[in-house]
């Protein structure tokens, strides 16, 4: 039996995978340790969505390979040769190959490299877990996606959409709640197309989970805009349940329809506009998160200005900003690239714009008083989320998983600052 160190990077689905890998390790009789200095074997669950992220993964692989190493997650599936270039002896475990976790670990501990990148039949629903946060239950509802974006490696890593059955997901959520979770994250590569392959959809799932008669909150994860026209009416209605955070992560990526066409996004800027408008009209306070890529190879100055204008018009609370980076194996990597200095200039302008929008949005919330679910400890205090999933920071003594009534007294770009009033 070995001492094993596991760490994860990337999206919530990647962290969910690491929780399941840790659960399988513990069930297999091994011991989990908190740092690599104590371990007999290291596992790193990787992300490969951006150049900068991939470079960070390579750095971690180099530093962890002094001991037997398993490289898991998206990077070994999408860029096997890149991983093997920096660590010849590490075993590889794909994002849909978790059923072989113990087999790969045992082989690696014996000095035999094993490659397990093919998809297994094992569903990620019902696997044992060791949670990263005892208050948060991350539930994967599907694997893969239906998109063919020209900039993205995710399809290479996770393949086509494979949705898990609604009843199985509900039972998994019930288990998470029974084990003490107060916040449930419904996550996947793309929640927007959940169920299209098995005759159901995301609103049906949200409604079914919200019907569980317990005290908990639901965070619906990222969904791409191209599937919104099919589900938006029912989705907005499903959000009317008090258990659902009034939070929508809908990555538009660009304000230019020409660029969106070149990205093969399958939606227009209007698709994004309409869902944001509908959500904000239906609910008095609603948090919108989106993603923007600047410097896509075909983005002109006019295209860039359309993105600036779209952000000014829709005023999202959160913007995940990325400079375009060519990812190996993707279509757009073969195109002529925009000069790096120009991409940096555009990125700086958008960064300043989104900070200005965020602080203005947050200032409107000064004086708000209401219930906050506390779900994260920091060095300075404790952080929670209000009904619209806005991060609320207080310096008071509160336990993870508790609700408190908080009054907002000040704000930063990313956070509401408050004090407990009851």
Architecture overview:
The structure is a single chain. It contains 13 helices and 19 strands. It has about 425 residues and is of the alpha/beta class. It has 3 domains: about 110 residues, Rossmann fold (3-Layer(aba) Sandwich); about 230 residues, pyruvate-formate lyase- activating enzyme (Alpha-Beta Horseshoe); about 50 residues, OB fold (Dihydrolipoamide Acetyltransferase, E2P) (Beta Barrel), CATH 2.40.50.140. α7 runs parallel beside α8, α8 runs parallel beside α9 and α9 runs parallel beside α11. The chain is globular. The termini are far apart.
Counting helices, strands and paired strands, the structural category is alpha/beta
Biggest beta sheet summary: 6 strands, parallel
Helix-residue proportion: 25-40%
Oligomer: single chain
Strand neighbour order, sheet with most strands: 2-1-3-4-5-6
What is the CATH level 1 assignment of the largest domain? Alpha Beta
Spans with pLDDT under 50 lasting ≥5 residues? none
Ends apart, CA distance between termini:
49 Å
Number of helical runs? 13
Q: What is the CATH-assigned architecture of the largest domain? A: Alpha-Beta Horseshoe
Query: The CATH topology of the largest domain, please?
Result: pyruvate-formate lyase- activating enzyme
Beta strand %: 15-25%
Tell the overall outline. Answer: globular
Mean pLDDT: 89
In total, the number of strands is: 19
- Could you state the CATH homologous superfamily of the largest domain? tm_1862 like domain
Count of individual domains:
3
């Amino acid at each position: 039996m070995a001492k094993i160190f596991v760490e994860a990077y990337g999206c919530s689905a990647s962290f969910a995978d690491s929780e399941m890998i840790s659960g399988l390790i513990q069930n297999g009789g091994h011991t989990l340790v908190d740092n690599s200095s104590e371990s007999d074997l290291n596992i790193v669950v990787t992300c490969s969505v951006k150049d900068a992220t991939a470079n960070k993964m390579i750095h971690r692989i180099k530093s962890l390979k002094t001991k037997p190493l398993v490289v898991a997650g998206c990077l070994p599936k999408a860029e096997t040769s890149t991983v093997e270039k920096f660590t010849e002896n590490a075993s590889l475990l794909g994002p849909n190959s978790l059923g072989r976790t113990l087999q790969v670990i045992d082989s690696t501990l014996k000095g035999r490299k094993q490659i397990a990148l093919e998809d297994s039949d094992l569903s990620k629903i019902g696997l044992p877990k060791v949670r990263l946060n005892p208050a948060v239950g991350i539930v994967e509802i599907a694997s893969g996606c239906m998109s063919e974006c020209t900039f993205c490696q995710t399809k290479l890593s996770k393949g086509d959409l494979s949705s898990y059955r609604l009843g199985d997901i509900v039972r998994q959520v019930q288990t998470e709640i029974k084990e003490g979770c107060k916040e449930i994250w419904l996550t996947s590569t793309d929640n927007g197309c959940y169920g299209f392959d098995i005759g159901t959809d995301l609103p049906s799932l949200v409604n079914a989970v919200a019907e569980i008669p317990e005290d908990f909150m639901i965070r619906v994860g990222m969904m791409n805009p191209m599937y919104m026209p099919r589900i938006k009416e029912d989705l907005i209605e499903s959000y009317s349940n008090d258990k659902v955070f009034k939070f929508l992560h809908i990555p538009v990526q660009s304000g230019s329809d020409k660029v969106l066409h070149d990205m093969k996004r399958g939606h227009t800027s209007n698709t994004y506009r309409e869902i944001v408008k509908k959500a904000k009209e239906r609910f008095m306070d609603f948090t919108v998160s989106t993603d923007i890529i600047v410097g896509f190879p075909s983005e002109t100055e006019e295209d860039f200005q359309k993105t600036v204008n779209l952000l000014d018009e829709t005023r999202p609370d959160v913007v995940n900003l990325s400079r375009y980076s060519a990812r190996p194996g993707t279509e757009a990597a073969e195109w002529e690239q925009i000069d790096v200095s120009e991409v940096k200039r555009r990125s700086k302008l958008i960064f300043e714009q989104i900070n200005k929008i965020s602080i203005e949005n947050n200032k409107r919330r000064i004086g708000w008083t209401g219930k906050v679910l506390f779900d994260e400890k920091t060095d300075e205090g404790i952080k929670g989320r209000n009904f619209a999933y806005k991060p609320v920071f207080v310096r008071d003594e509160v336990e993870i998983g508790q609700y408190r009534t908080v009054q907002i007294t000040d704000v930063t770009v990313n956070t509401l600052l408050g004090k407990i009033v009851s």
